[in-house]
């Protein structure tokens, strides 16, 4: 089995103030799926960027087969048969899906006419393979985050490369899409390709990987060993040096506390109809749904970014007139952690302190005439420390942080804001398991200690079941029902999926009571 | 030999002033000046001209012959130049009084436009009921307003009407567009064209040649080849010529004399115009088809006359 | 049907087209001579040259940069062209080719410096603007070249069929060529890709450097062509050619729907932007606006034109949103 | 998200390591700080200014004369403020083509207030600046309400403001201004320093404080860098844009009034046709100084040094007496050389120091 197709040996790489990789080795076999694991900032993406020619290693060699290669850029890597799906989205927003997929192959003849019809047809093949049902002529700017992710995967697949590196490809996918992706990956592996798979979802890793390399603080914690014989706790130990602490939170109910946020018969310009939803003080309400269910847009409608066409939003028992996001934030103390950290969550070109501080400036500015970094820091540092943002300094540009650490910053700024209602959209995308646990603790503390009402949007079922007190299920811009969380994973996930699917197949447009999912409390 | 270092500074790069270069060289040679240099600001900007003038002070120039980038705006810097002990005069165009410039030698812009309009109306056989149009330069240049008013006055005195003024066409592209558009729409309504800026004159001359209409009479300004040729070919009635060479030559001479201790006569016969009471006309003549060929000679003779009597007329030495 | 309508509504050229038609209708209603053959010829002459100027900038906007030196390149090519003919007595077609080569070279230099140093094109072209303009002034000392062959003069002003002037021919060719380039050829798509997301383009194996240089070369060529055509039209090699281009070069593409941050331009939209500007210029003359008020009226007309276009965009967005909701 | 000025921002390659959370030991921290300083844009400009000053001082007589220094400082003072007035808008990710137009309107307004309305000079100044704020805010409101790009709005308003001004004044000027106001522009402190330069420095300090230490300033930066993220963080992006345009109006007004004091008169032509003469200095300072054209980053000191460098180069060239018509070519070449030298410096440091 072990015929080595690629080997990165003794790779070291430093950034100013950061030693990202030290003597890291990785060996890839053909016909195998290799897991590359590690905490946020461990150096996974850096290693992948070196293998794909984006960064140059300071030391070490890359070997393709038994030949050492020098990569002078992404084009070189592609030419050598190395394909990649990067952690961050890299698409041309105004170009169609198919053009994005085939951008590199167009380059071979720069003066021949592009046959768009053929291009769309070819693209269709790859989209079908990933079960992405959109017109290949659609500009990618119109896609949701998850759809873009799938396009990016299609783009990498279309290269048919010998070595394919996937940096957290499933971070914003639901389990359903993940399954489709995995079947594709299995097929590729069986065809002899060599795959690298990065993920913070250990269940997935265990499901499809046969080899594993773990990085810890930029060094190998284990190098290219077989997955066999490693259980979850072994992997966790390799990653974080100790075993996982699984929170043991009892189910609780908040049905008696006051309603902090209520939606009554709300319809929105983005297409929601008859939305009724309540979030009580200190309650964590989960909002679950498949990709494209309209959860994000509902959140933004509450925030005043999209117009409410009918119905009312009630905050603290009083009808709220929210005309802009600023109204929502400063008048009604509603905060929103965006699912799209790069576009909406963070200001990449600014420093960490600038990013986290943005929600507290107003408050601090009122107290003192001049707003010093020191004051801001005092306020936000505890959250940054608790989430263990890995950075040489708070003045580091967010751009230079690893993906997971960026996500932490984007969440931390709202934890620091002291809002009464917090809407959290996909908070743990790309966050490692250790931090995820801390994050969950923080969210829970926020609810318990500060009485914050929390609306948690997540496609991560385990997260939902760990955190939420009550889970509201949404599909196709309507609310399907809600379920009190018993924290029994199997039962809960089945109940949720039933709610989505049964409803959909039986009565796609129904407003009827879906009594099919029996034994579960329905939304009022 | 004299230690006078003369700088001849136009408002910006423009063919009108090219003659100053030779005039300065000739004057330096003829009168034994330390130098008389033509110094062009890199662009038509008050700021660029100011910065150039300041650097010339640093370089030790002590006589400044300046075309005012703005009749009022340039007063300040001229006053500062004089403050450094230099001699300064306005050349080609005038500063608005009061200013520290010893005098203004050049063309009375308003008067030139006035005379040109009179020539135009005359060529139309008297002004009564005639319709003329006026093409001119940037409105921000205060002289443009003087020209507009002068044309208006000459026309109304003769009973003619200025039916349209098109301004702000100092660049060739918009001038082309607007003048042609105007002629396309109104060629049959208009009897005469007066232009009071270089580029519009050239463009209008070409436009008239293009439509081949010799009924419309036009009087231009300055000595561009295109214009002179159009006069010869009969598409343009004539042009108002000025005397840049004479300005530069006599100006350099006067500056040196003033530095040598001469003073301006108390009763010097300065003329007055809309801007200043210390005006010396360097010669503005109308050149029709008969005069264009030897306009150079006629300018030289004007220069000669002005130069020969200059010291006795204006200076106490 | 409805779908088609909404796709027209959404396209960049639809709004400007509507504005153009309204403007032509209005102006010719008040002033019938507006549509006289001679005036159409005048309009076309202006549009032919200005369109090239706008395209020269549009190509650079497409890669998300700015070219401040379009005018300086145009001026340099114009005086090179007339200088070659006057000083070296080179026959005009050869002089034109040589002058275009000057334009290409100037564009290439811009592109080279931008691509190789990574310094913003804004700064590089600001510096080269100074260099090219300075060369122009250094060569001409601000005095025009007058000896333009009659052949060139007549090409610049005559029509091949009333009222179509010869000068529209290169512009028509360029318009089609550019449209084809940007919509059908990989080179053109790369230009837009680099403008849309430079980093992503790089990761997709596109050579960003080559693309940037290509765009600048095209820009230099177009600016040069405009300069040569202006010499023919003005019948004189004016050193001041190009001094006035900058604002127009940006205004027309932006009116035509170009996104200043790059990645999206419209050839037809830009052409219509040029037409709108040309009509506005004429309106100011035809309606005898007080010269002291010309600028005010001009400003309001620009606002009117782009405002109308914006209104259309909002409408179109609504129509598609409603359709989305129905679907 | 394309940026116009890619390497003008050191952020891509420079790490910052300067406070308590840093794991590096004390001495390392010092060198890191030093490196950060050495790599900064401002340091680069300062180095260039020093290098060119030395060269000019050696090769051109009179460069260091007090008149020359005075004149240079005074010219730079105005150019810097013009740069600031563009900078505050660039920060928001927009442009303001009407800076020159506003500057002239404010200057003429000030002239009218002092000469015709008979205001004392300080009230004239305050009134005129209020006018500048209003005109600027009008730009901002139009941009926000129409949703059009600031480029096109300010292109139109440039024409409108200027047109209204020229119509009202009929191209006339105001020159009977209070003497104390006019002497201000000609005064020399210690024979070399123009008070205008001091005004500029004060404005610079205020702006620096605004961007570093006030909520409004930080909001402006955030809104400019990423309007979507800023909006979702509760910032009223619209108001921020109106604010920055109003500030731009005031700054353009300050520059206009400085020129009035310097020329001794308020004249419509002081910024050329439509105020376009100001566009170049308006962009040069900020862009050389490291303000990104895509918004979100401002450097007050950089703008100041950038504008000063350009003034210095121009003065030096004029004193070098390159043939009159070639000055522009040389200026362009020097500018190119300056940015290339800066690039070399940065990549040299990056290669040899930082790894
Ligand atoms: N361009 C850069 N400049 C400075 N530091 C960087 C840069 N890129 C990465 N780093 C640093 O290098 C380290 C490794 O980052 P990397 O992105 O490889 O982590 P990762 O393992 O992919 O983490 P994650 O799981 O969060 O994606 C981090 O500390 C990060 O801050
Ligand atoms: N089938 C589809 N085709 C095209 N676009 C879609 C489709 N489904 C959803 N979208 C778009 O994707 C987005 C999905 O909405 P939204 O992000 O609110 O859903 P969500 O439940 O939050 O899903 P996600 O898990 O992706 O965040 C919307 O912009 C919607 O227009
Ligand atoms: Mg990563
Ligand atoms: Mg979502």
Automatic annotation (TrEMBL), chain A:
Instruction: Cite the residue spans of the region called Disordered.
Output: 503-524
Q: Which InterPro entries match?
A: AAA+_ATPase (IPR003593), ABC_carbohydrate_import_ATPase (IPR050107), ABC_transporter-like_ATP-bd (IPR003439), ABC_transporter-like_CS (IPR017871), P-loop_NTPase (IPR027417)
User: Which UniProt keywords are present, listed alphabetically?
Assistant: ATP-binding, Cell membrane, Hydrolase, Membrane, Nucleotide-binding, Repeat, Sugar transport, Translocase, Transport
Q: What is its EC number?
A: 3.6.3.17
Question: What protein is this chain from?
Answer: Ribose import ATP-binding protein RbsA
Localization: Cell membrane
- Which residues fall in a coiled-coil region? none
Does this UniProt record's set of keywords contain Disulfide bond?
no
- Supply the gene name: rbsA_1
The ABC transporter domain is annotated at 6-242, 251-501
- Primary location: membrane
One Pfam entry for this protein is ABC_tran
An example of a GO molecular function for this protein is: ATP hydrolysis activity
A single GO CC term for this protein reads: plasma membrane
Q: How does it sit in the membrane?
A: Peripheral membrane protein
Automatic annotation (TrEMBL), chain C:
Transmembrane helix found in the keyword field: yes
One GO cellular component term of this record is:
plasma membrane
Among InterPro entries, the record links this protein to: ABC_transp_permease (IPR001851)
Pfam families attached here? BPD_transp_2
A single Gene Ontology molecular function, please?
Answer: transmembrane transporter activity
* Keywords attached to this entry: Cell membrane, Membrane, Transmembrane, Transmembrane helix
Cellular localisation: Cell inner membrane
Q: Which CDD domains match?
A: TM_PBP1_transp_AraH_like
Q: Which domain of life is it from?
A: Bacteria
Q: Which residue windows are transmembrane per the record?
A: 12-30, 42-63, 70-88, 94-114, 121-140, 160-182, 212-232, 244-260, 267-286, 292-308
Topology in membrane: Multi-pass membrane protein
Q: Give the family from UniProt.
A: Belongs to the binding-protein-dependent transport system permease family. AraH/RbsC subfamily.
Q: What name has this protein been given in UniProt?
A: D-allose transport system permease protein AlsC
Designated gene of the protein: alsC_2
From TrEMBL, chain D:
Location in the cell reads: Cell inner membrane
Lineage, top-rank taxon, reads Bacteria
- Membrane-crossing segments per the record: 43-64, 76-109, 121-144, 151-172, 192-211, 240-258, 278-295, 300-319, 325-344
Q: Where is this region: Disordered?
A: 1-25
A Pfam entry, by short name: BPD_transp_2
The record's GO molecular-function terms, alphabetically, read: transmembrane transporter activity
Which InterPro entries does UniProt cross-reference here? ABC_transp_permease
**Polar residues composition bias: residue spans:** 1-12
**Coiled-coil region(s):** none
Q: Which GO terms describe its cellular component?
A: plasma membrane
Q: Which UniProt keywords apply?
A: Cell membrane, Membrane, Transmembrane, Transmembrane helix
Topology relative to the lipid bilayer, per the entry, is: Multi-pass membrane protein
What CDD domains does the annotation carry?
TM_PBP1_transp_AraH_like (cd06579)
Similarity comment: family membership: Belongs to the binding-protein-dependent transport system permease family. AraH/RbsC subfamily.
Return the protein name: D-allose transport system permease protein AlsC
């Amino acid at each position: 089995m072990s015929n080595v197709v690629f080997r990165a040996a003794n790779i070291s790489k430093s950034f100013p103030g950061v030693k990202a990789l030290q003597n890291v080795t990785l060996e890839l076999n053909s016909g195998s799926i290799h897991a590359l694991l590690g905490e946020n900032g461990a150096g996974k993406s850096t290693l992948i960027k070196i293998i794909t020619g984006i960064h140059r290693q300071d030391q070490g060699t890359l070997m393709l087969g038994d030949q050492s290669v020098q990569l002078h850029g992404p084009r070189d890597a592609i030419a050598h048969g190395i394909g990649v799906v990067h952690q961050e989205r890299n698409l041309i927003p105004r170009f169609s899906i198919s053009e994005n997929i085939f951008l590199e192959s167009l380059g071979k003849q720069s003066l021949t006419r592009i046959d768009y019809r053929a291009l769309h047809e070819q693209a269709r093949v790859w989209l079908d393979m990933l079960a992405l049902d959109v017109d290949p002529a659609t500009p990618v700017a119109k896609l949701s985050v998850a759809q873009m992710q799938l396009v990016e995967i299609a783009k990498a697949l279309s290269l048919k490369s010998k070595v394919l590196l996937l940096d957290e490809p499933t971070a914003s996918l639901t389990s359903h899409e993940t399954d489709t992706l995995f079947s594709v990956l299995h097929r590729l592996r069986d065809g002899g390709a060599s795959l690298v798979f990065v993920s913070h979802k250990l269940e997935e890793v265990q499901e499809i990987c046969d080899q594993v390399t773990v990085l810890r603080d930029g060094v190998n914690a284990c190098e290219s060993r077989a997955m066999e014989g490693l259980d979850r706790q072994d992997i966790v130990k390799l990653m974080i040096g100790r075993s996982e602490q699984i929170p043991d939170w009892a189910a609780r109910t908040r049905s008696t506390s006051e309603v902090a946020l209520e939606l009554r018969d709300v319809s929105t310009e983005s297409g929601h109809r008859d939305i009724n939803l309540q979030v009580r003080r200190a309650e964590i309400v989960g909002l679950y749904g498949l990709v494209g269910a309209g959860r994000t847009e509902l959140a933004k409608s509450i925030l005043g970014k999209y117009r409410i066409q009918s119905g009312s939003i009630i905050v603290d028992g009083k009808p709220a007139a929210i005309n802009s996001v600023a109204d929502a934030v400063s008048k009604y103390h509603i905060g929103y952690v965006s699912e799209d950290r790069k576009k909406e969550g963070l200001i990449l070109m600014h420093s960490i302190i600038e990013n986290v501080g943005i929600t507290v400036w107003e408050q601090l500015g009122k107290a003192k005439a001049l707003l010093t970094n020191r004051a801001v820091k005092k306020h936000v540092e505890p959250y940054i420390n608790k989430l263990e943002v890995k950075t040489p300094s708070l003045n580091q540009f967010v751009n230079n942080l690893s993906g997971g650490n960026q996500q932490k910053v984007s969440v931390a700024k709202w934890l620091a804001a002291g809002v009464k209602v917090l809407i959290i959209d996909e908070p743990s995308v790309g966050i490692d398991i250790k931090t995820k646990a801390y994050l969950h603790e923080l969210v829970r503390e926020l609810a318990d200690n500060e009485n914050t009402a929390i609306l948690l949007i997540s496609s991560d079922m385990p997260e939902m079941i760990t955190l939420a007190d009550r889970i509201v299920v949404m599909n196709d811009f309507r609310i399907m029902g809600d379920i009190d969380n018993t924290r029994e994973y199997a039962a809960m996930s089945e109940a949720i999926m039933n709610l989505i699917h049964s409803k959909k197949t039986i009565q796609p447009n129904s407003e009827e009571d879906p009594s099919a999912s029996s034994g579960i409390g329905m939304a009022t | 030999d004299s230690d006078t270092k003369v700088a001849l500074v136009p408002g910006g790069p423009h063919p009108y002033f090219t003659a100053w270069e030779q005039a300065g060289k000739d004057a330096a040679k003829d009168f034994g000046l330390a130098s008389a240099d033509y110094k062009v600001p890199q662009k038509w900007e008050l700021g660029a001209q100011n910065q150039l003038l300041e650097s010339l002070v640093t370089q030790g120039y002590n006589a400044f012959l300046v075309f005012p980038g703005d009749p009022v705006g340039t007063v300040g810097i001229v006053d500062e130049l004089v403050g450094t002990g230099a001699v300064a005069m306005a050349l080609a165009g005038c500063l608005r009084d009061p200013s520290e410039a010893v005098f203004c030698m050049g063309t009375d812009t308003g008067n030139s436009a006035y005379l040109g309009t009179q020539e135009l109306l005359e060529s139309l056989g008297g002004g009564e009921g005639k319709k003329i149009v006026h093409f001119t330069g940037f409105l921000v240049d205060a002289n443009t307003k003087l020209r507009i008013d002068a044309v208006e006055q000459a026309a109304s005195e003769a009973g003619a009407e200025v039916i349209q003024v098109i301004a702000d066409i100092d660049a060739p592209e918009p001038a082309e567009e607007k003048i042609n558009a105007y002629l396309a729409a109104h060629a049959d309504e208009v009897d005469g064209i007066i232009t009071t800026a270089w580029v519009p004159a050239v463009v209008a001359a070409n436009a008239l040649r293009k439509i081949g209409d010799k009924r419309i009479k036009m009087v231009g300004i300055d000595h561009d080849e295109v214009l002179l040729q159009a006069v010869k070919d009969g598409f343009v009635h004539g042009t108002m010529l000025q005397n840049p060479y004479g300005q530069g030559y006599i100006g350099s001479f006067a500056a040196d004399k003033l530095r040598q201790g001469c003073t301006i006569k108390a009763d010097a016969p300065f003329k007055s115009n809309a801007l200043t009471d210390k005006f010396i006309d360097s010669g503005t003549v109308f050149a029709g088809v008969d005069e264009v060929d030897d306009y150079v000679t006629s300018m030289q003779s004007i220069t000669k006359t002005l130069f020969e009597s200059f010291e006795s007329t204006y200076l106490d030495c | 049907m409805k779908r088609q309508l909404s796709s027209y509504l959404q396209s960049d050229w639809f709004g400007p087209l509507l504005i153009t038609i309204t403007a032509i209708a209005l102006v010719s209603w008040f002033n019938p001579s507006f549509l006289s053959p001679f005036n159409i010829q005048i309009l076309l002459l202006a549009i032919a040259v200005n369109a090239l100027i706008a395209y020269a900038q549009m190509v650079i906007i497409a890669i998300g940069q700015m070219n401040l030196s379009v005018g300086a390149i145009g001026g340099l090519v114009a005086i090179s062209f007339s200088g070659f003919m006057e000083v070296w007595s080179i026959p005009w077609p050869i002089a034109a080719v040589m002058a275009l080569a000057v334009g290409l070279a100037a564009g290439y230099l811009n592109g080279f410096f931008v691509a190789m140093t990574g310094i913003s094109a804004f700064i590089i072209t600001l510096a080269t603007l100074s260099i090219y303009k300075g060369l122009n002034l250094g060569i001409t000392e601000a005095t025009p070249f007058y000896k333009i062959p009659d052949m060139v003069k007549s090409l610049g002003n005559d029509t091949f069929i009333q009222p179509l002037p010869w000068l529209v021919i290169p512009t028509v060719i360029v318009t089609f060529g550019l449209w084809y380039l940007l919509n059908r050829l990989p080179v053109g798509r790369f230009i837009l890709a680099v403008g849309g997301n430079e980093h992503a383009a790089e990761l997709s194996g596109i050579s960003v450097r080559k693309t940037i240089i290509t765009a600048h070369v095209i820009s230099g060529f177009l600016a040069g062509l405009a300069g040569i055509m202006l010499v023919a039209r003005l019948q004189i090699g004016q050193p001041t050619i190009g001094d006035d281009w900058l604002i127009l070069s940006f205004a027309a593409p932006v009116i035509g729907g170009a996104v200043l941050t790059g990645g999206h331009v419209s050839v037809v939209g830009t052409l219509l932007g040029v037409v709108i500007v040309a009509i506005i210029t004429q309106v100011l003359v035809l309606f005898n606006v007080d010269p002291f008020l010309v600028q005010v009226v001009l400003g309001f007309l620009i606002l009117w034109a782009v405002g109308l276009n914006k209104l259309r965009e909002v409408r179109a967005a609504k129509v598609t949103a409603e359709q989305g909701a129905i679907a | 998200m394309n940026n116009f000025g890619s390497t003008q921002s050191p952020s891509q390659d420079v790490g910052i390591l300067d406070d308590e959370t840093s794991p590096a030991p004390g001495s390392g921290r010092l060198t890191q700080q030093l490196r950060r300083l050495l790599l900064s844009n401002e340091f680069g400009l300062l180095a260039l200014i020093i290098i060119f000053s030395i060269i000019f001082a050696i090769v051109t007589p009179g460069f260091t004369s007090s008149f020359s220094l005075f004149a240079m400082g005074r010219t730079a003072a105005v150019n810097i403020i013009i740069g600031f007035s563009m900078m505050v808008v660039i920060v928001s990710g927009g442009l303001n083509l009407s800076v020159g137009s506003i500057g002239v309107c404010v200057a003429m307004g000030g002239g009218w207030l002092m000469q015709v309305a008979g205001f004392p000079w300080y009230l004239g100044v305050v009134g005129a600046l209020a006018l500048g704020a209003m005109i600027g805010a009008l730009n901002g409101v139009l941009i926000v309400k129409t949703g059009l790009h600031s480029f096109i709005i300010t292109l139109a308003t440039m024409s409108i403001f200027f047109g209204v001004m020229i119509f009202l004044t009929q191209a006339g000027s105001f020159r009977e201004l209070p003497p104390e106001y006019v002497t201000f522009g000609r005064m020399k402190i210690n024979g070399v320093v123009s008070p205008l330069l001091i005004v500029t420095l004060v404005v610079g300090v205020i702006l620096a404080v605004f961007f570093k230490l006030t909520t409004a300033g930080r909001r402006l930066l955030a809104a400019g860098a990423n309007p979507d993220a800023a909006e979702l963080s509760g910032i009223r992006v619209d108001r921020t844009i109106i604010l920055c345009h109003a500030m731009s109006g005031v700054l353009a007004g300050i520059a206009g009034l400085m020129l009035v004091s310097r020329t001794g008169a308020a004249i419509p032509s002081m910024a050329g046709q439509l105020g376009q003469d100001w566009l170049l200095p308006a962009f040069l300072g900020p862009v050389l100084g490291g303000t990104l054209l895509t918004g979100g980053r401002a450097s007050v000191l950089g703008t100041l040094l950038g504008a000063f460098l350009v003034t210095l180069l121009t003065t030096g060239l004029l004193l070098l007496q390159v043939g009159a018509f070639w000055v522009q070519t040389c200026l362009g070449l020097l500018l190119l050389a300056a940015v290339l030298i800066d690039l070399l410096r940065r990549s040299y440091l990056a290669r040899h120091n930082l790894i």
